[in-house]
Amino acid sequence: MHASTRTHIREDTSMDIGLVGLGKMGGNMRTRLRDAGHTVVGFDRNPEVSDVESLEALVEALPSPKVVWVMVPSGDATRETVAALGELLGEGDLVVDGGNSRWTDDAANAEKLATKGVGFVDCGVSGGVWGLKNGYALMYGGSDEDVAKVQPAFDALKPEGEFGAVHAGQKPGAGHFSKMVHNGIEYAMMQSYAEGWELLETVDLVDNVTEVFRSWREGTVIRSWLLDLLVASLDDDPGLDSIAGYAEDSGEGRWTVEAAIDNAVPVPALTAALFARFVSRQDDSPSMKAVAAMRNQFGGHAVRTGAPKGGDAEGEVGAPLSPESKKAGAGSGNEQAES
What we know:
The protein has about 350 residues and is of the alpha/beta class. Helix content is about 45%, strand content about 10%. The chain has 13 helices and seven strands. It has helices at about 25-35, 55-60, 75-90, 105-115, 130-135, 145-155, 175-200, 210-215, 225-235, 250-260, 270-280, 285-300, 325, and strands at about 15-20, 40-45, 65-70, 95, 120-125, 135-140, 165-170.
């Protein structure tokens, strides 16, 4: 068993599970599951972290009914991995999509797998690089029967305590839709802290802005983990001088605004936070330094250490993945996830 960061091993029934994608989140999830007594067979395109040499070998190594958790970048990589598993799995097996997939993909994936008798659960995962120690918040959708097959893994991955995991709905997409809205709210919260920080820094009145933010961590209605992470960033770099005011959006913010438009639900704060990230790509915004710092703290997301050279040049720190790097099967974890 791998070295554990946990204080104890859960008493849940152990299970065998395949895990496709062993990047920043997937690799830590494998460790947390093993620490809880589960048998995990992991596959990644990087042979240095992979337990088996192929997706086929992963499926062959699992007892039936087989459960395979997909943790690769959203979009084509996930769709192609799910489709490949549909050809390898059989009646009674299950696929869990734990990436940040768009919720509209889930119904299509579930329908395709159902023709093979394979079940499908979509699971939004939040926790970033801190999930190994603290646990992952889980929002999952699917039938009670399918959820039951992977429940021991959910119990192992979630934080200790009563909360942190929810069966969001029976319909495919319920989990990812919940996670999408979660990330939209996250955008707005981060933007609020960032704008407050910029205002305090700009007005020549407050002597120690970092200590003001630190004081808010106890006893105030705006205390949160995001506030803790911003204070950690300010401790490392009080003026955030080493970070460029440039913040990416990873998809969920856009999808949240699109869903709000489709359903005539006003979300002005979430929309403004998304647009603020677009503005950050035009100028070196002070508040976006704070947003970029928080994203790096909770998710290990790349930050720019200088002004972008003509936009999202391929290969630049923080630049979006190219279509080629997003495609084709098992990737190195859920690298595009906001959290």
